[in-house]
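re: ur question from yesterday

yeah so i grabbed the chain u mentioned. its 610 aa long if i counted rite. heres the sequnce exactly as i have it in my notes:
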Amino acid sequence: MSGFTDTLREILRRALSRGATPAASAVESAGPAFLTSPVRETRHAERDDLLSAGLGRAGLVGPPQPFADMLRPTPEEIRRRAIQMSWKGIAWLQPLAAADTYGALAAVPGREYSAFARVPGAHSTHRVLAQVPDAFDRKARCLVVAPASGSRGIYGAIAVAGAWALPRGAAVVYTDKGAGSGYWDSVECTGVALDGTRAAAGTCELEFEPAMPLAGHDAIGVKHAHSGDNPEADWGRHALQAARFGLAMLDRAFPAEAPFTARNTRILAVGISNGGGAVLQAAALDKDGLLAGVVAGEPNIHVAGGRALYDYATEAALWLPCALLDPFFDNVPGLRANPLLAATAIARGATLQAQGWLDAATPHAQARAALAHLRAQGWQDAALRSAALSTILDLWRSLAVLYAAAHTRSGSGPMPGGYQYAALDGLGHPAPAPELVAATWWSDAAGVPPGQGVALVDTWQAAPDLHAPGLLALRALWSGPDVAARALRAGADATRGAAPRGGLPVIIVHGAEDGLIPSAFSSAPYVAQARAAGALVSAWTVSPAQHFDAFLGLPGMAQTYVPLVPYVHRALDQLWSHLVHGAALLGDLRIDAVPGLSPTAANLRLPDRG
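ran it thru and got these structure tokens back, copy pasting raw so excuse formatting
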């Protein structure tokens, strides 16, 4: 009986720590039918506001916000740190950045409404979170839908959407689009509750809990990889559900002015990277006319005439380490300072030669041949130079592993290529994750291991080219004839995008030097396809701009590239002027910017109209 009492006491303690008693949760549970949880409502004043959690610019730039009890952070502490780390992961907040690059970052008091939702047929849920400022503009009603970029958590688009929308009195609704950092600890059988705290299975609904035990010793579960859902195929549905959730929460916030609908509230959708792909998918599925306009920055979108991310990520993971020895890459910031570059290039060249893909004999000849191969596959020189940084950081392999599991819907089973996610002991072997590390996963992790104490474990690695066995297996899933390869290609095909619904204005903003999602493989073929279908699409090409604004804080990067997100904000300005004031859309733009300057309005070098 004492064990039962302790369990009940723990359940009550967790409920109270989330600011809701069991009875209060029942009262809060009303909402759209696609929700699987009660709606959690919290109020936020200047000290913990909607935009920066009370941190302002100085706090966002500073070290990660500490927890009073590092093992048991409160929901308020976790939220503050999650907002801070989401800003750090997306925005350029270094001294060279102008004070108003992402707006003034003044406090925006208001309310947040969060819940778990599910699209039809999905195994796992996705998060939705609406931010409604106290100063919501009831005369110019606007709701901005913002899917997270990459595989980030629910605040992953705050620097993109919140920075533009909240200070001007618009509401924002976010979705993690079936990904996020609600990691599952298979040793402790814990996941993440709605309020961001870690909780044991069975005590409350968790962000992610695998249907079956995970394969692998001491494995850690990541929703994007292990849900069995192939979330990318549903990104558009995630975004449209988020829009409907946002309207319902505006009804709740302002009942006297309800109902909020697409007829009386302008709904804009904006996202970058995977979030950009999500809003373009939503634009194609929006048969009910929810959306009034869309801005997609550097979108990961797969259409006919382009290439799927998995295709070129596995190609880059295999070929770029060899190519980087070529003098073509000499001016890439920080590249030649990498002490492992030459040894890695030589080992990879030998691997490619053993596969019969290279016939060059010397390392430098192999590098030259590898570079020629990539160019022949459609890689443009500007993209290749910034792709080098993704190679140094091992991003290609990280993405390939995650998307192999997602596209094949491997779920709780073994991940393709002999990989798994786990914490490591002092000898580099999978081990239980320290509680101190697990407490920061939801706030700090980006949703794509390795990172934040979660390692990408390669069980097939072998000298001299350690990662070659696993990478060759991942590449074979794209090019091979077997059942697993057919399953992966079917999963990639399920993510294909289509043209937006007729009459919907869409602005694409892409960096000419984007090496992670090259425009030649993604936005360029999308624009061609959309225009062939009669869609209203404008394409802005920014140069020199690569994929990650946050990377501009690295040595030499701010002197080489300009940030892209400020252009996404200007595209939103242009879209708003078009919708509200009837201003003509600017159309296609080639913006030649100057790196090393603060991205003020003058330095952005946009046409002076719209």
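noticed a couple things. The longest helix spans residues 235-253. also The chain is about 35% helix and 15% strand.
anyway ttyl
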